[in-house]
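This week, work through this protein record:
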Amino acid sequence: MDSQKATQTKKFGTMAGVFAPTFLTILGVIMYIRLPWVVGNAGIIGTLAIIAVSVAITGATAVSLSSITTNIRIGSGGAFSLISQSLGLEIGGAIGIPFYIAQAIAVAMYVFGFREGLETLLPQFSPLALDAMVFALVVGIAFISTSFAFKIQFVIIGIIILSIFSIIGGLFVHELNYNFEWFGSYPGSKENGFSGSSFWLVFAVFFPAVTGVMAGANMSGDLKNPRKSIPNGTLSAVAITTVVYVGLVFVAALLETPEGLAKNYNVFIDKAFYGPIVLVGLLGATLSSALGSYVGAPRILLALGEKKIIPKSNFWARVSKKGEPLNAMLFTALVVVLGLSFRDLNAVAPLITMFFMITYGMVNVVALVEQSLSLPSFRPTMKISILIPLIGAIGSLTVMFIINAVVAMVSLILIIIFYFYLVNKKLESEAGDSRSGLFTALSEWAMKKTINLSSSKEVRSWRPDLMIPVTSPKSIRSSFKLVESLVAPKGSVKLLAIKNEEMSDQMAIRLDAFLREMTVRLKKQNIATSHSYVNGNELSNILNISMQSLNAAFFKPNTIFLSLDQNKEDFEAYQRIIQGAIQNKYGVILYVPYENVGLSLEKDITLWINHLPVNWRETYNLENNDLAILLSLLIKKNWNGRLKVNVSKNSTAGIEEGDLTFFNEMVRFPTDTQLNYYDNSKELEMLSSDTSDIDIFTLNDDFEIAQLIRTVTHTRTSAIFCHDSGNENALV
């Protein structure tokens, strides 16, 4: 039933679901009736600077949003889902609740804007009656269906494009002004009696024009492929609208003198080739913005209900047979009516703007956190510089205080109140988040906080924390470079040195010196490393007791690393160690080097996958394959090598023809990865022709050490055999 519901609701592509609402929200009322005023005050250079600063902030947010979206399976609620998955439901909800309120009240503002344009055509109607008519039109279109609302948007896009051409056409029918004012004198507006303005005051008037970057992301739960649609639709809309705004700056300067631009808000209508189409474009842009906000706001409320964040969550989380959040839409209509009852939203409009800005800032903070942690789970297909979210976060906070410092402070206080309210609710997230990894990376003192947030390590926070038994320097020296490739840059190594009665004092001194040398070398690469000594004779018993003891610790190893010495005949000890690790829920990495060749050129890696569960597409559970996949990605990254993935297509493997593309998309292998099907009956032949520097296999429960050695001898290539602990997930 759930999968059927998901299929019903995820129906929009990039154009209808993301590009159109984003494009229409940005090209709104400010473009038509405030951009000429901005040029009249700030001049051409000043206006271009205002556009550049505005787009730098919202553009950085759009890029950060797009990058994170390519890394996660974003749910409904857009920015709320994104923030919650990274920083937790408490912070996500603290942002999501005011973001919903702002999105809903914004509908009332757009209705007022539509009514002001409509009054020139229908002066016989009272403003209240016009507001009611416009609101009824918006609600009616939305309740017919979201698909119908989005089809209306394409008609409005056509009208807006015609209106822009009409504005440009005015250059051919009116006398042009060539006396440009490059740097404005900031005369002010008719509302303040032209008593003057400033760059930042004019900036504050223009900035809301570009804050529509989340319009498409709000529809994340209704998109066919949000991972592709949100980046493509959002960034293309931002790029095109920026070009439009820059072009209209010069058109405005040519159509009218600076004095005329400052005095007349309707320059684009009065000076257009055909004024009525521009007025219709203004009305259409305002209507589309109202529609986009009214369709998007209930989706945020729906997502808040699905995560049990607000009272009566089950009620708000209900959807119709068509996948429409009817309860959330009805409540949103009441919120809009409340907003309309104020009759003048100037008092609450700054607060709404602040809620939008806080949301944008937090999206950038999420990108900063994910980039800084460098967890293996953060593998966006769209990689960006850390400077981009830094600019977006700082810019959003700065703009808030530039617009209104008092309202900015009040908004932040409200967010904090929402946060502590949600903390007291003790929310539980089924999907988990990366907060445990965040607090672990920050410092040791955060351990208690991390345990309170999550009783167990989240799969998104997984990184290789190896425990390596060391009986002599020789036992680890040959695999030292491989260990570096597995744990860099954010993993850890815990060396467990085994001492017994037969070890001489000289051997003990050499072992101690080697461990210290290895610890220093790994720490220089920013790899957390520690070592300790355990006395005993039976290696498997020592390790089993050590693993059981460490299970009580929070910062404990999650994977046992073993290097197989083929010259020793005591393979049963390895069997016992591996079985003990599996029982204690540790991952296992068994490195089997090929004679003296070792890792050869450290360039080519081959990952062999032949035991995928049949239902992995529905459950997103790869069972005992996650550790092998994650290690192949880490080694490729640290070797800067070439990765080849051979996936078995036999009847029990869970892979069918055409599934490789979906498998590749879910795991997010690097773009240069070579994926191949192979038939199990030809596995020995393929192994014989393998030319990799290392092979990576899954270690089955019924493994035999002798068989593993025969595999390495057959391939003449060193190999890693892996067994999951159950705490890894290559699909996050």
Remarks:
- The longest helix spans residues 35-69.
- The first strand starts at residue 465 and ends at 470.
- The two ends are 24 Å apart (CA to CA).
